[in-house]
Amino acid sequence: MSAPTLTFVIVGQEDNPIYEVDLAGPKEQQTQYLHQFVLHSSLDAVDEQMWMSKEPHLKVVDRFNGLSVTAFVTAGNTRFLLLHDGRSDDSIRAFFNEVYELYLRVLLNPFHTPTSRISSREFDRKVKLLAKRLLG
Amino acid sequence: MNNRQIIKHSLNIVDRPLSKNRSEVPTVSLSAFAYLFSEYIQYLVDRANSISELEDRLEKVGFEVGIRILELLSYREKVLRRKTDVLDILRFIHGPAWQYLFGKTADDLQQAANADDEYYIRDYDLLVSRYISVPRSYEPFNPGTLAAGIMRGMLDSAGFPARQGGAGPEVTAHFVSHKDRQRPITTFMIKLEPSVMQRQAYLEAAKKG
């Protein structure tokens, strides 16, 4: 049984990655590349569904080899993507909501532009804590 | 009044409830804002080389504000819902956003008769321009450009870009003097990019078909 998969990416409006973290612990290079690739290619699927529904939570938007990608879109068209191996939808929703609030606080910083990466260690730490608490 | 300055209250701005009762919402004093704004315009006048550059810089400031206002207000609404439709976002700007920024909703929202991608929002007495008087030599300048920038920020981050550069679909502010009113009405002309209209048409067709 392979290690649990859980990668979280925040993508801005220009499809630029703002924040990436591997929440299930470090992996070898190959899997990391694979995860990144799957996440970025699922952006197309997210784009399609984004304009169809008014809900910020989009359920699973893409599947690959047993891994699925769930997305959350904010009012400012920033996308949160989570690559996972079939976690419960509710816990993912809760996780996204909490990260949304954290992200909002970062965004309100006048020195942060919509295209800059989030490099704050506090943010990183809090996201990891949330993941441990809500996603197990 | 205008919450443009984020003051450190005991409760962070994100945690503050969006209350219906206007008097409960913490506000910034109008005179403080007017002073800050007038100083800022003087600062810009010193540094800008032309009127259009002055307007550009003012608009950029508004743009940054607009991005954050959109996210903040959407977060604080009870039900989280995104805006996928042009009318949705325009109504949002005209209603809740204007209410939050200036204490009242904007006065008019209409679509241009001939062009599909042009919309007008009017405000009879724009708060930001109330205490700024423009001398003859700076005639085309309109301090409402700050509000125009805020609107463009909101439109842009919601995915309805109002192009930049060239003759633009941007959001521009115009003074229109009206005989019944003391102050000129500020009209914002919003022109959207063709990609937005294409997407709209595509979505309409998808919904029907």
UniProtKB/TrEMBL annotation, chain A:
Species whose genome carries this gene: Volvox carteri f. nagariensis
Gene3D superfamilies reported in the protein's UniProt record: 3.30.450.70
Classification via SUPFAM superfamilies: SNARE-like
Pfam families registered for this protein in UniProt: Sedlin_N
GO cellular component: cytoplasm
Domain of life of the native organism: Eukaryota
InterPro entries in the record: Longin-like_dom_sf, Sedlin
Protein name per UniProt: Trafficking protein particle complex subunit 2
GO biological-process terms attached to the record: endoplasmic reticulum to Golgi vesicle-mediated transport
TrEMBL record, chain B:
Primary residence: endoplasmic reticulum
Example of a GO biological process term: endoplasmic reticulum to Golgi vesicle-mediated transport
Pfam family, one: TRAPP
InterPro entries for the chain: NO_sig/Golgi_transp_ligand-bd, TRAPP-I_su5, TRAPP_component
Superkingdom assignment: Eukaryota
Signal peptide: none
Alphabetically ordered keywords of this record: Endoplasmic reticulum, ER-Golgi transport, Golgi apparatus, Transport
Presence of the UniProt keyword Endoplasmic reticulum in the record: yes
SUPFAM superfamilies in the record: Ligand-binding domain in the NO signalling and Golgi transport
Keyword Endoplasmic reticulum found: yes
Family, as annotated: Belongs to the TRAPP small subunits family. BET3 subfamily.
Subunit field text: Part of the multisubunit TRAPP (transport protein particle) complex.
Name of the molecule in the record: Trafficking protein particle complex subunit
